[in-house]
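Please check this chain.
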Amino acid sequence: MKQKISLFLFLMTTQLVIAQNVTDAIRYSVIVPGGSARVLGAGNAFGAMGGDVGITSINVAGIGDFRASEITGSISYNIPSSTTRLGSTQIGSSNDGAQVLIENLALVIHTKPSYSEKFVTSNFAFSVQQYTNYNQVYSYEAESIGSITEYFAGQANFDGFYDFESELAFQSGAIFDDPDDNLGEFYFSDLLDEDITRKEQTIERSGSYNELQFSWGGKMKSGLSLGFGIGVPLISFEESKFYEENDIDGSPEGFNRLNFNESLTTSGYGINARAGIGYSLKNKFRIGLAYQSPTYLRLDDLFFTSMQYDCGDCLGTPLVESPTGTFGYGLRTPMKFTGSIGGLLQTDELKGFLNLDLQYQDYGANRFNLTRGDNPSQIDIDFEEQQNFTLQNDLASGLSYSLGGELAYKRYRVRAGFTAQLKPFANELGTDNIYGTGIGYRGNKFYTDLAFQYRSLREGYIPYEASIPERDLFLNNEVNLSKLVLTFGVKI
């Protein structure tokens, strides 16, 4: 199992669909808070505020600001789109994958404690929140020198046969041992050094990162708020990759076409803890400080590959399939610290707030546990050490920040804000930006909010690792996600 690091958010090569690697660590540790339309509409900038269930993923102390019990829920309409480029040339695009999803469901139980005169509230919240939806489809078509069969031959020659890649290539005839070359067991493909092939691939992803949250928050007469919570992540991820290659200038006796399909399914669960404090100063300024522990995940991978090879001299084109592979492992994602400061506006006609959140996270603190069984193999021990070394040295630590606010006139609200998300790789510049805006209405017993969020990021992608590095087909996939979120709440 190998890996390759890119300057972009994610990089997946053909072998990575069945390996625990930096891509997996980033997928499950780059988490954007949100949940409710109010928080999303303010650009996720809400850490010093409170009274909304979306606060549980930023500063759980904000649960103490509820002055009534509530039931609330949010649905979202997610519209992903992508554009794939080779250099400056567009070679693919997709607008598939739009979905209607449940963004969050929550119950808040408000009480006025009788056990202490210092506390004004003692509230409990039970919620399920979706952090990330992985639904995405994209495809591309490109022509370049070289073939994936060179990668399979190199794997067989230098790393040995691998059930899910080079073994299939040998069984299908995509690579072979020439008994007349006097090189022993040395494998070749039908492609000549300068042959140009047409490469087409479709990648389909689905799944989500959800979290069950159990939270308590209390507010004191002094203006101090305290909060504690437990999170139970529930993860599902599926990826299918359909790769096709055609020789466009080879001989009629040699390579014609190859199909290589990969499937990965990951499921898992975990646990984390969080704590927060907040303070209101003369009802004009608010500050907050929050901590979330590392998240401990238990993950299980199920993977499968198949290949079909056709050439001029081939006797038929059989489909060959790998065994079904399974692997269970652990992943510890980093802790988070969030500091918040906000100002409140209160006049006879207008009310509102402006909030700034700063969040520190060290992505390099991700750690795999690939040896959790009773008798781990030396291969797994060595691979775990290699992957954790890569995580520590190649991933970034630093600050993300969110700035946003809300303006209220009578029963109506308008909101806007943005988040500048830290990029996970240490050698990346800039941030991934998330923009939000929204409106809301507050009745005596009922409220509703509507938010729009826009997010853009880039993925680096290499279909396979070429035998000559200069032939790597490095693709830039620009992914945009538009999200419309509607929240309803009822006070009980």
